[in-house]
Design goal:
alpha+beta; 6-stranded antiparallel beta sheet; transmembrane helix
Amino acid sequence: MSCPENAFRYNGTQCACDPGHYLVNKSCLLFSGDSRGWVVGSGVSAEPQFFLTTVLSLDSIRRLTQSQAVLLEVTLVTVVAWLAFCFAVRLGRVDGGRSTWFRIRWWISRFDFTFDTRHWLEDQQVVVKRKTELGGTFSVASSILFIGLLSALLYQVIMKRSIEVHKIRPANAPDLLSFVNDLEFNITAISSMTCSHLRGPRTVVLGTPGFIDYRVFPLSKYMSYSCQNTSMGPTVSVKCSGCRIPWRNHYISWQFVDLPNDPATAVGFQFNLTAKDHGDDKHVSFVSGSIKSESSADDQPRTYRGPDLNVLRVQLFPQLYRNLHDLRLIQPLLHDFIPGSFFSDVNGLRASLENPRDGLINTTLFVSSLSDYIVEIDKESVMGPVSVLANIGGLYVFSLGVFLYLLVQCEARVKKLRNEDAVMRDIRTRRRAQKNWNKLRKFVMYTWGLNDLDPSIKSGNRPDGSIIASLSCGRCLPREKSSSRMNSSLRLGKNNNIPTEESVDPDAVPVERVGSSLVDNSVGTRGTSSHSEAEHSSQSTV
């Protein structure tokens, strides 16, 4: 049978993958490691925790607002768009106050709630409220700017309201005895092997070999181990429950050996080292990653096999979190990896596979402690409530100051803008007076008829089907009584003083005089109608 791609033969009939490759589903794959590299976690989230996290989904907000620059850009664009809209509205026609553009400009002037008492005034005049279109424009613009700056300030308060402070102090025995953690070291040999190749650890070595503190103890006295088959290879887990800071170095060794027609080879190691406070599963400090076969200086794929030790040196150092009720965590770090026997060429690997003395992979976990010092971690607030309120007040004053300066400059340089509130009120007043006069004129026309309003109809030339003709017909009112009331009510004098809609400017009509004449005419009408009723009764008696 032929060997798969990236493989070679040894012992005449056996197939093995090239250096740096391992067998997966009858294919030799090159191990490239983890693209993320080594990941270190402190066990405590770097994000500040506050009460809004239980109500709002801040992750989606952070994705939209990655920095304060986004909030400031949105604010600037909104202010510019509002000013451009107000400028475009001023270009529209006024049309005596009847156009839509004038109504929009009028409502913009009603928004002048900030600068209504800060407009241009001559000397020795009483300060009054003046709502102008320019003031309304700048009032809304200042509000938009203040809201945008306030949002940026709140973003800073939420994201960067505190800083993390690290302090290092010398450690003594009572401090070290207070660190009780659950440690777990998971080491995976990247290969096509299984747990049946494993010859597990039986002892643990304490101290430094060759020195007076060198000791050998059974592994079960300090910790336990287990093996689990994974898709990447066998994983050896060494666990210690309720461990204290080790005062001396610890050495734990295990081997993978050859099985019939199944040699012991590995192309790399994957590790996951964790530590958590005993009885607290919420905070877990860890370090994880992979040791690639091509991570050597010559950048060549490697296959680990042989009697020399592959040493993974792990260092532990204690961390005390003052801001989390004196949480004590041991931070593990993979400080160094010392490669053992390995092969980078096919010929050397073939010779090793054919040599029974190389039929093993020695792995040693070297655990040391940096227990001379303790790292104390605490958080200090960058800004308190007083500073936040002071910043809000400063942003408000800044927003008003910018547009107040623009308002003063515009009204000082353009004299037309000084009295634009009075001009808009006059236009709106004339428009309202015109509407009222039209209502009054229609009331007079439909009440007393069109004879005295239009001389052409006085001669009797009423258009067929008109409202006046229908009102004067005999079917609408009693013949004698209605004619007497109509004739008496239309005696307004020698000269007809009620103008027509086409001949008189509504803006110039004195409404008071028309109202007074209407009162006099109504009085005369009542007297005339009573006199005519008396004559009619006397005639009927006779």
